[in-house]
């Protein structure tokens, strides 16, 4: 019996010691750990453009991203696929940059770029060396204010989008599940239940006035948001942004 009591006492003593040690470590952890913060500044330009600035001094690059409030769920009825078509049209030239010159400008300056259409927004981004910040801002402002919506560009991109739908969705096993099957059966509201990629008949039937009107409404009504991250954000970025994008 004494042996059992001694063993029990030792077990209790060991348990209490472990609890004290673990409590000490737990209490010491948070106070000694360095606090992680991501600097972010939000503000709005006079024309309504919302800007997000975030300096990052870990690499000599900048990332410029622009977000338009047009996506699969926001496109009008009988205009399915227009959000996706709009994304493609944004690479077809603008007032001072010809067809595909936006892409060449970024790549020839050592950068990468892309765009995508999502449920509630369409986004574009460029990653460039930090000394090319003004170049990226100027190029985005040029197509924001002077997109080349022409008959030639429309016909070309109708074919491109149509082929993309066929290759990525219609002709791929189970390719239509997230775009054509699941939304329609999971929802009853049209904006959540229609073909997000776009019915080919709607895309093929699009006329130049249709697309021009859609583009103008998107540019005018949407509150565009810019995200700017990088090591070389200038001391007075508000001036640079106001001069290029605030007009």
Plain-language structure description:
This protein is an alpha+beta fold and 247 residues long. It has 2 domains: 1-36; 41-245, 2-Layer Sandwich (Cytochrome Bc1 Complex, Chain A, domain 1), CATH 3.30.830.10. 50% of the residues lie in helices and 15% in strands. The chain is built from 10 helices and 6 strands; from the N terminus they run H-E-E-E-H-H-E-E-H-H-H-H-H-H-E-H. A 6-stranded mixed β-sheet has the order 1-2-6-3-5-4, covered by helices on one side. A hairpin with a 4-residue loop joins strand 4 and strand 5. Mean pLDDT is 79; it is low at 1-5, 11-26 and 230-235.
Number of domains: 2
In terms of per-residue confidence, which ranges show pLDDT below 50 for 5 or more consecutive residues?
1-5, 11-26, 230-235
Beta-strand percentage range = 15-25%
Annotation field: number of helices: 10
Q: Give Rg in angstroms.
A: 27 Å
N- and C-termini, Cα separation? 90 Å
State the helical fraction. Answer: 40-55%
* CATH topology (level 3) name of the largest domain: Cytochrome Bc1 Complex, Chain A, domain 1
- Large-scale geometry: globular
Secondary-structure element order, as H and E?
HEEEHHEEHHHHHHEH
User: How much is the average pLDDT?
Assistant: 79
């Amino acid at each position: 019996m004494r042996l059992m009591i001694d063993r029990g006492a030792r077990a209790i003593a060991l348990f209490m010691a472990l609890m004290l040690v673990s409590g000490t470590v737990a209490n010491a952890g948070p106070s000694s750990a360095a606090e992680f913060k991501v600097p972010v500044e939000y503000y709005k330009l006079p024309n309504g453009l919302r800007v997000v600035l975030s300096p990052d001094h870990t690499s000599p690059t900048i990332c410029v991203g622009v977000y338009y409030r047009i996506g699969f769920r926001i496109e009008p009825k009988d205009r399915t696929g227009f959000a996706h078509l709009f994304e493609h049209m944004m690479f077809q030239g603008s007032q001072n940059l010809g067809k595909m010159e936006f892409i060449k400008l970024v790549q020839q300056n050592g950068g990468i770029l892309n765009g995508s259409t999502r449920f509630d927004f369409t986004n574009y981004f460029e990653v460039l060396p930090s000394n090319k910040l003004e170049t990226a801002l100027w190029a985005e402002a040029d197509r924001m204010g002077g997109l080349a919506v022409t008959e030639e560009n429309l016909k070309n991109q109708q074919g491109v989008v149509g082929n993309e739908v066929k290759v990525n969705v219609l002709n791929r096993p189970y390719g239509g599940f997230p775009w054509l099957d699941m939304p329609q059966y999971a929802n009853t509201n049209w904006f959540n239940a229609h073909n997000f990629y776009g019915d080919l008949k709607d895309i093929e039937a699009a006329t130049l006035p249709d697309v021009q009107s859609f583009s103008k409404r998107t540019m005018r009504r949407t509150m565009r948001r810019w995200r700017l991250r990088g090591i070389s954000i200038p001391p007075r970025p508000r001036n640079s942004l106001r001069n290029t994008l605030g007009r």
